[in-house]
Amino acid sequence: MTKQLKILFFLAFAVLSGNSLYAQELPKPQQVIQFSGIIFSSDTINERIPFVNIRVKNSRRGTVSDVNGFFSIPIYKTDTLIFSALGYGNFEFYLQDEVPNNRLFLNIRMRPQIYTLKGVTVYGLTKENFKRAFLQVEIPENAYAYKIDPKSLPTSDEIKMPPPVGIVISPSELLKEIPFIKNASDKKKHKKRVEKAEKDGDEIPEMH
Predict the structure, then answer these.
(1) Helix %, strand %, coil % of the chain (to 5)
(2) Phi, then psi, of 22 in degrees rounded to 5
(3) Which range is least confidently modeled, 28-32, 66-70, 115-119, 134-138?
(4) Of 24, 90, 99, 111, which sits 20 to 30 A from 52 (CA to CA)?
């Protein structure tokens, strides 16, 4: 009987010791903080920035500010937040002080970023060059593709010429120069002349 008690006592001691060691090895839960705020532009007093992308660095957690620049996201005390938006430089934020009640509200100010683009020079075409290139367009059976005769394109010297002053290019006038459109227009005009001649009793004109 005494031997059995010793065995039971030994087993109970081993179980309690194992639980104590396991509890000591478990990582302590991190402090979760509800971080909220409003995002402003740094060059104004009260201009809010909507739809700012907010993500936790080196993780897949994140959120987006609403149309009024407001955001709210749960974070750990050791997290680093990255704020990014079109037209603004990235802004990083991390906690430096203790947060009472695990709640924090701050206004974030992002600095505008200016992008410098290379200049582009635009040259205009004369009416004759545009008309020539337009009329040389081949309309294939496949309406989703077309070819342009390289000979119809203006030369480099013609492109460098300044656009003429006071010339207005009408697309409707250019379309009238296309053969099948011009023929259709002539037939329509001739039909009207025939109807008028029949009505007035005059001689029916011939189509030119």
Answers:
(1) 35, 25, 40
(2) -65, -40
(3) 134-138
(4) 99
Supply the pLDDT for residue 198.
75
Closest among 62, 78, 63, 73 to 29, alpha carbons compared = 78
Residue 99's nearest CA partner among 17, 154, 168, 30 is 30
CB burial of residue 180 (10 Å; 0-12, 13-18, 19+): exposed
Token pair, residue 107, equals: 């206004």
In which residue are the tokens 């194992």 written?
18
Q: Indicate the burial class of 136 (C-beta count within 10 angstroms; 0-12, 13-18, 19 or more).
A: middle
Question: Are the beta carbons of 62 and 55 closer than 8 angstroms?
Answer: yes
Residue among 65, 61, 64, 99 at smallest CA distance from 80: 61
Gap between the Cα atoms of 63 and 83, Å rounded: 10
Which residue in the block uniquely carries the two structure tokens 């990083």?
92
Specify whether the CB–CB gap between 95 and 30 falls below 8 A.
no
